[in-house]
Amino acid sequence: xxxxxxxxxxxxxxxxxxxxxxxxxxxxxxxxxxxxxxxxxxxxxxxxxxxxxxxxxxxxxxxxxxxxxxxxxxxxxxxxxxxxxxxxxxxxxxxxxxxxxxxxxxxxxxxxxxxxxxxxxxxxxxxxxxxxxxxxxxxxxxxxxxxxxxxxxxxxxxxxxxxxxxxxxxxxxxxxxxxxxxxxxxxxxxxxxxxxxxxxxxxxxxxxxxxxxxxxxxxxxxxxxxxxxxxxxxxxxxxxxxxxxxxxxxxxxxxxxxxxxxxxxxxxxxxxxxxxxxxxxxxxxxxxxxxxxxxxxxxxxxxxxxxxxxxxxxxxxxxxxxxxxxxxxxxxxxxxxxxxxxxxxxxxxxxxxxxxxxxxxxxxxxxxxxxxxxxxxxxxxxxxxxxxxxxxxxxxxxxxxxxxxxxxxxxxxxxxxxxxxxxxxxxxxxxxxxxxxxxxxxxxxxxxxxxxxxxxxxxxxxxxxxxxxxxxxxxxxxxxxxxxxxxxxxxxxxxxxxxxxxxxxxxxxxxxxxxxxxxxxxxxxxxxxxxxxxxx
Length: 536
Prior knowledge:
The chain has helices at about 1-10, 15-30, 40-45, 65-70, 120-125, 150-155, 165-170, 175-185, 190-200, 210-220, 225-235, 240-245, 255-270, 275-285, 290-300, 305-325, 330-340, 345-350, 355-365, 370, 380-385, 395-405, 410-420, 440-460, 525-535, and strands at about 35, 55, 75-80, 85-90, 95-100, 100-105, 115, 135, 145. The chain has about 525 residues and is of the alpha+beta class. The strands form two sheets. Strands 3-4-5-2-1-8-9 form a seven-stranded mixed β-sheet, with helices on both faces. It has a two-stranded antiparallel sheet with strand order 6-7. A hairpin with an 8-residue loop joins strand 8 (about 135) and strand 9 (about 145). The longest helix is centred in the last third of the chain and has 24 residues, at about 440-460.
């Protein structure tokens, strides 16, 4: 059980993980059993990108709306019949929370009879085996995978299989969905599923499709990685006319759509995550009439997506006007303006900008100006103690970058000259070591004092003159301390004084030395005679 939870947590983005946690908390507070279902489980197991999150609760999902809105979720739509919520969480995470239900179709083309049900019954009403799985997010069974139709095996085999023989008759939108999945995943239909698909197409089951499911399929086009390929398959199979009678690939701005997907990929590599869905719909319907576009918008269930699509051109024009004005007169001002703009607007304007100056500024924002960041002397800043731990570091580094952008700092020398006054004072010196205590400390202090005294006496003796040699006693090295005993210095025997050349004050004996005394020097001839006279 733990393996699926680990896989889930490693595959989801941080924003998606936060959304899962919020839904778990809301469901727990409402005492509802919660499951991750549908495409999310399929994508987790297959290793494909997780596009959105599908949750199923055993209870009325609409009761979770207020708690989720307080947590920051935006409700795009709600369905009273299916007790479902379409949500968008922070970071652009899309999610759907629906009531576990059973569906019974009395007649093709008519809405099914819906009733609350268990999670097992809910899985039986789904379209394909790869979507009929659920992962428990409840205490006591967390991580338990429910796979009654062996969808994991079909994911391994990379095939699309319907759950039962009447799948395409009960819900003809599954014909469109099958084409979308085969195009996106490059997975074929299982043999019997392919036969039923052909039969449904020949018997024109698609005429029984419900309008509510048409809007869902239009919306899903906006989130495809290659929407033009899907649209071409729809046109070939005849499904595009079902979505809108006047829609065709000829109405698509394929050049703009290709540039959009390429620019989105570049922004993703730079760390941006723009929601390209409104712009995708814009280019897919670029050459359609206003009435047809309005019909498509009315059919889409997510109203927040529709509003973003409507406002796309107006918001992009406002940003273009600001980029062409004094607010973006310098590279640094342009950088600050684009850094604060919505990524979706930058993405769309990068493709549709008519003014060459505006397009060039956006291009510089993604390419040339980012190379200037490499000129920031990070190593020298570290030596000046200007590090990320410093509270003012973000402002300092940003100011340096903006000055480099505008050419006000032209060399490394000028940059360092600017940085030095901003460096924090050096850290205080470390405190002195604490004084040692005990016998060992006293013995070490006595030995040091004795050594200093001997050195002073030696220096004094050397200064008396060349005629009177001075004793140069050495300090006996201290023996190493035995275990449990302090080290002691062995005093050297006192040196004998040399015979004076003429009567004078008796010379003070040399102090204790740590080394053996030097041999007594032989007296000179004159001194020897004087010594003999004294003896006589």
